[in-house]
Amino acid sequence: MAPRPILIVEDDAALADTLFEQLGLEGEFAPEVAGSLAAAAERLAGALRFDAILLDRGLPDGDGAEFCARLREAGRQMPIIMLTGRDREEDVVQGLDAGANDYLAKPVRLSELLARLRAQLRIHDNSEDAIFPIGPHLFRPSARLLVEPTGRRKVRLTAKESSILKFLYRAGGRPVPRQILLQEVWGYNPTISTHTLETHIYRLRQKLEPNPSRAQLLLTESGGYCLAAGA
């Protein structure tokens, strides 16, 4: 599985460095650090996507809770975990009311933070709120739907098509070998061949691509498949 991109919004340089190092240690996550709300907004507005945010409450240019509320108002649904020295009951309530999924008081225990982050990602991935942009579509894995917001067209996916697309999305544009896809989507099954995968990819392109004969979103590359960068 490709590392999951996580945005750390923290102005304490020592803590930010520790979180960056620990999250990137096992290859499970791909952390990025922003030292202010302005820097976080810039990264979120760019081409990079983030699967979750670790958000400090007190930042040099504003309140993390207010920033969280603005993200929710803008339709951002990724898990947000607040890390803060403000641990009074009213502070926790404010943070959760602003849309945070979880609230951890500093000093943070890294093992607990990692466990809570994984738990929030699992909940989000299996919720109705999980929406992934792919080209002109919005991909809703839980509903197995591709939605074109402009034309309001909805395309149904099979369970296997949805699993393939979700796994390729998680790879962040990196090619995924055919055998890895077979293992992840079908599990260990010696009767399943690469021809089965190729058939599913063909059908998925019919649903995903404007011109399936000239794929621009779901590409064949390096003995496997990938989603085009920025897709």
From TrEMBL:
It comes from the Bacteria. Residues 5-121 form the Response regulatory domain. InterPro entries: CheY-like_superfamily, OmpR/PhoB-type_DNA-bd, Sig_transdc_resp-reg_C-effctor, Sig_transdc_resp-reg_receiver, WalR-like, WH-like_DNA-bd_sf. Residues 129-229 form the OmpR/PhoB-type domain. It holds the Pfam family Trans_reg_C. The modification 4-aspartylphosphate is found at D56. Residues 129-229 bind DNA. SUPFAM superfamilies: C-terminal effector domain of the bipartite response regulators, CheY-like. The keyword Flavoprotein does not apply. Keywords: DNA-binding, Phosphoprotein, Two-component regulatory system. This is Response regulator transcription factor. It comes from Siccirubricoccus soli.
